[in-house]
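Practice problem 4.
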């Protein structure tokens, strides 16, 4: 970690780059507000140079997932290198590359993340698992700041579903929506005609057909299937609370805000037993239900019959600690 602007400022300008509904963009906004630092919201990377020109020389903190910063990983790295040519840059790396996403894709993204980290004075990640992935790629991480439990308003009313399985967030193959749908369909085909799949969110860009196929898999077997679309923040606690069995079966996750959102709603989701979910369970004991995935339909049947293990007291917000952790990291960097 280096201190490129000794004594000049105590916190950088936080950049929230991307569409407001994107998870990384939303997190950048939440992080800036929690830390009490100045926030600059930019919807597209093409507008970033003009936006930054209003703040000449000011250090900045970027929340980086490569698709937000360029059409290719190398384009993303080039944009961030250009920013770093004129000012001090700190980054939080999101969606850290890992072999499970495919070796060639991982290779291209790793090279880009190495370039990005190489021009950053401060590199932050959100989990020890991400730190380990970075170490494998020879990327030095200065701080691990876990994703927080968000603030959720308590539901005004709650009428739990009788036999629903819920997947929350932006929907894409990495969330194994197809695997969950097949398990729910197996229950429906075996005679559980009340079982339903509730997809609590909207398809990620380009994955509309994938989500549609998952819904049809359940319907064809005689079960119910619903896609809610984006859920307003004010309704989130109620919608997450209504589901009978919450699931978050990520195929290759290194950090996840949705797990903490389930926790804020007083839910304990079913997850694959993996490095990151074990880390989350260690940080927040009793927050998850782990499965090896060998009999997912059986796991779901048992929890649908007795959903009590999926409920727990709502976890307290971690936003204040998030802000303090970023402040500490910035103060060391800028000292």
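Answer key:
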């Amino acid at each position: 970690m280096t201190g490129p602007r000794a004594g000049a400022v105590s916190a950088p300008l936080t950049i929230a780059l991307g569409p407001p509904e994107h998870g990384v963009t939303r997190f950048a906004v939440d992080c800036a507000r929690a830390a009490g630092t100045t926030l600059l919201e930019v919807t597209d990377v093409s507008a970033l140079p003009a936006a930054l020109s209003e703040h000449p020389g000011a250090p900045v903190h970027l929340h980086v997932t490569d698709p937000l910063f360029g059409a290719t990983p190398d384009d993303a790295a080039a944009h961030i290198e250009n920013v770093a040519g004129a000012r001090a840059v700190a980054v939080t790396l999101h969606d850290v590359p890992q072999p499970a996403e495919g070796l060639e894709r991982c290779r291209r993204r790793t090279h880009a993340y190495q370039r990005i980290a190489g021009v950053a004075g401060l590199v932050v990640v959100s989990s020890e698992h991400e730190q380990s992935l970075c170490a494998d790629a020879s990327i030095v991480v200065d701080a691990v700041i876990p994703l927080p439990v968000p603030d959720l308003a308590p539901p005004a009313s709650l009428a739990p579903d009788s036999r629903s399985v819920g997947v929350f967030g932006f929907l894409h193959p990495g969330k194994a929506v197809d695997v969950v749908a097949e398990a729910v369909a197996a229950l429906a085909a075996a005679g559980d005609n009340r079982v339903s799949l509730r997809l609590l969110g909207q398809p990620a860009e380009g994955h509309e057909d994938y989500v549609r196929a998952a819904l049809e898999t359940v319907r064809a077997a005689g079960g119910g299937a619903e896609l809610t679309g984006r859920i307003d923040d004010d309704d989130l606690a109620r919608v997450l609370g209504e589901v009978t069995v919450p699931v978050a079966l990520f195929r290759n996750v290194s950090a996840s805000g949705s797990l903490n959102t389930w926790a804020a709603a007083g839910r304990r989701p079913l997850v694959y037993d993996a490095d990151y979910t074990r880390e989350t369970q260690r940080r927040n004991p009793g927050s998850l239900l782990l499965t090896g995935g060998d009999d997912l339909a059986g796991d779901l049947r048992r929890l649908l019959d007795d959903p009590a293990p999926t409920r727990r007291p709502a976890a307290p917000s971690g936003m204040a600690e998030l802000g303090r952790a970023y402040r500490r990291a910035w103060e060391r960097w800028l000292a």
